[in-house]
Amino acid sequence: MQFTLEQFKQNYDTEIFPVKIKGHDLRFYKPQSIDRFINPEDLMDDFPLWAKIWEASVVLTQYMADLPVDPHRRVLELGAGLGVAGISAAALGHNVTLTEHNPDALNFLRANAAINHCKNATIQKLDWFEPQLEGHFDVIIGSEIVYQERAVDALGHLFQKYLAPQGKVVLSERVRATGASFFEKMSPRYNIQAQKRILRSKEKAETVVLFKLTLK
C-alpha cells in the first residue's frame, strides 16, 4: 500500500517538535507515547529506540549541517529513527538515503520527509543481517547504532559492502562497552578518529563521541 500523509495522521497519535538548522525551520513528527510499539510479553523485543530523539542524533545533525554540500555525494544513514539527522541534511541539500527496519519507524521517516519537502531524501527498508541496497555510498552515518553485541559483525559487513573506496563512516555514540568492542574490531581495517562532544542542559551534561572511520 502506498504511503500517504493523511493515512499516517489517522494511524498514529503524534506531536510535532521543531528543529532549526542553518536558517531552516524543520518539523518532525514523533509518537505521543511509545506504549503501542512495545511488546508487553517481551519488553526487549524490538524496543522502540527509534521513537526517541537521542543526544547523539543532535551531534550527528550538527556534523552534517557543517559538512559542505555536494549533491553528487551519496550519504547513507543507518538506523535513522525519526530522521532528524538525515532529513535535516537532505533539507540542506545533501543526497541522503535513510534506512530503518521497523515498519513504524519507516512510516515516521516517510512522514517527516514529506512535511519537510525533502526531495533529496530516499527512505528504504534495511535489514542489517540481510542487506539489499544498491550501489556504494561516500558517507555512511549513524547515531546510537553500536549498542548490541550481535550487531557488531553486521555493521562491519555493511561498511565493507556499501562504503565507497574513498568514503568515510561517521558515527555519533555515547560511551559504552559495546562501542569499545566494536571500534577495537574495526581498527585493523579502518583509521579511526574520535572527538568528544558535551551537550549541556539544566538537568545534566551528556558526553557523546563522534567517530570518523576511513579505510587504511
Which radius of gyration do the C-alpha atoms yield?
A: 17 Å
Q: Which H/E pattern describes the elements? A: HEEHEHEHEEHEHEE
- Name of the level-1 CATH class: Alpha Beta
Briefly note the CATH topology name: Rossmann fold
Q: Provide the CATH architecture.
A: 3-Layer(aba) Sandwich
Estimate the mean pLDDT confidence.
92
Question: What structural category do the secondary elements indicate?
Answer: alpha/beta
**Overall morphology:** globular
The oligomeric status of these chains comes to: single chain
Number of strands: 9
Query: How many structural domains?
Result: 1
Profile the largest sheet: 7 strands, mixed
Unreliably modeled segments: none
Q: What helical percentage do the residues reach? A: 25-40%
CATH superfamily: Vaccinia Virus protein VP39
Q: In which order are the strands of the major sheet placed?
A: 5-4-3-6-7-9-8
Quickly count the helices: 6
Strand content bin: 25-35%
Cα separation of the termini: 44 Å
Explain this structure.
- The chain has 216 residues and is of the alpha/beta class.
- It has one domain (5-215): 3-Layer(aba) Sandwich (Rossmann fold).
- It has six helices and nine strands; from the N terminus they run H-E-E-H-E-H-E-H-E-E-H-E-H-E-E.
List keywords for this structure.
single chain; 216 residues; seven-stranded mixed beta sheet; 6 helices; alpha/beta; two-stranded antiparallel sheet; Rossmann fold; 9 strands
